[in-house]
Every structure is written in structure tokens, then in C-alpha cells.
Design brief:
By secondary structure, the chain is an alpha+beta fold. It is built from 8 helices and 7 strands.
Length: 231
């Protein structure tokens, strides 16, 4: 990798991180010494890149900075197309349309017109859509997570027992033929997993989550890891 490519790669790496990333980590990612990385950072700053931070603390791109898409390698393009097409095949119609639109933007925003390459990468996700996919529900759950508003649901368990509860969704897991919502259940006062095909009714509540979703998601992930280690 020459210096120009390395500078672009550093900008890409900084764009991926929301928090400051150390020079040591950036240097390891780029396969260069920390001393070289410091010189590269100074070069980028000299060229006008809005990089904030300092040695020993870390670096990050200033908030609000927009870096136009760069040229994609063959592997990067295939990863983007395969991922977007998998999302496009999901039963969430809004997310599916967004994936299709995103591919169109990627194709035309690059310095190279990628429409022909995107249309024929040779990679297609295969998904058999299940009967009774919960098309409106998934969009409603995503809206609840974004706004951190509680969701009232009518739920039937595997035995057909019905219950009404208020949940705080934190994650949606997309399996091949099912989707599972990980949420804090205010009825049980614990994290629970809800299969979408067993939710027979749902609506947004006026109440908000009792905690920030990111904190809930962290706690859920710790619990999930502990459960996996016991299995």
C-alpha cells in the first residue's frame, strides 16, 4: 500500500469509530509503525482533514464531517452488495426499500459508475420467505427503538397462552425464516425474547424507556453471553 492509499485508509478507519482511536491501534490496522502513523496524521491535518485529538489520547473525525465515498475494492463492493441484498430480502418492507435505495446511491456516488458491477457480482442471498411475515411489525419495532418508546404487545407463547405486556425493544435478530425481538419486559422485569410471529397485536405507547437503549443493550448482551457460556 502506497502512502496515498494509506492516507485514505486512515480516514476510512477514523470514520468507522465514534470514539477516539489510538495511534497504536491505527498503526496496527495499517501495518505501519506508530511513528509513521503520527506523520500520516499530521499530513492529513495539513491537507485540511478535520481530525481532532493528540498523541497518547487518540484521534477522531470532527462531528459533522462528511467524507464522500471512495473507490471500492472488489471485495468491499461484493460485501456491500451481498449485505444489502440480504436486507432487501427481509420481510421489513421499509428496510428492504432502504437497502435497494442505498445500493443505488452507492453506485452513482462513487467516482466510478458502479451500476454494472453491482448488477452482476455473482453473489445472491437465498431466502425462502415464510408465510405470514410480520411486515408492519418490524418497522414499528425499529421506530420504538429509535425513539426509545415502549411497545405494547399482545403475545402468545408456544402453548397458545395469551398475555398483554409492555416491552422496551433493544435488538432485532434476523434469522433465515424468523425474527426475534430482544426486549426488557416490564411485566417480568427482566429481558425476554419474543418471536415476531407470536405477536398478534402491537402499538407504540406514550411512555418512554426507563433507561437509555444503549445501556439496556449492553446489559442484555452481557446476559446473553452468560447464557451462551452455560449452554
Amino acid at each position: 500500500m502506497d502512502k496515498t492509499e494509506r492516507l485514505f485508509a486512515i480516514m476510512d478507519a477514523l470514520r468507522r469509530h465514534r470514539l477516539p482511536v489510538t495511534a497504536a491501534q491505527l498503526a496496527e490496522d495499517q501495518g505501519v509503525s506508530v511513528r509513521t502513523l503520527y506523520r500520516d496524521i499530521q499530513t492529513l491535518i495539513g491537507l485540511g482533514a478535520p481530525i481532532e485529538g493528540e498523541a497518547g489520547i487518540g484521534y477522531m473525525l470532527r462531528s459533522g464531517f462528511f467524507l464522500p465515498p471512495l473507490m471500492f475494492s472488489a471485495d468491499e463492493l461484493e460485501a456491500l452488495v451481498l449485505g444489502a441484498r440480504w436486507v432487501e430480502a427481509q420481510p421489513d418492507v421499509e428496510l428492504s426499500a432502504a437497502a435497494r435505495n442505498a445500493l443505488g446511491k452507492i453506485a452513482t456516488a462513487s467516482p466510478e459508475d458502479l451500476r454494472d458491477r453491482i448488477s452482476d457480482t455473482g453473489l445472491w442471498p437465498v431466502r425462502v420467505r415464510a408465510v405470514g411475515d410480520p411486515l408492519p411489525l418490524l418497522a414499528l419495532v425499529r421506530k420504538a427503538m429509535r425513539a426509545e418508546r415502549a411497545l405494547r404487545i399482545d403475545y402468545e407463547d408456544e402453548k397458545g397462552n395469551a398475555s398483554a405486556r409492555e416491552i422496551w425493544p433493544v435488538q432485532i435478530a434476523f434469522y433465515e425464516n424468523k425474527q426475534i425481538i430482544a426486549a426488557w419486559c416490564t411485566l417480568r422485569e427482566a429481558f425476554r425474547h419474543f418471536r415476531t410471529e407470536r405477536i398478534v397485536g402491537a402499538e407504540l405507547a406514550d411512555t418512554r424507556y426507563g433507561r437509555r437503549r444503549v445501556a439496556l443493550a449492553d446489559d442484555w448482551y452481557v446476559q446473553w453471553q452468560e447464557e451462551q457460556s452455560r449452554n
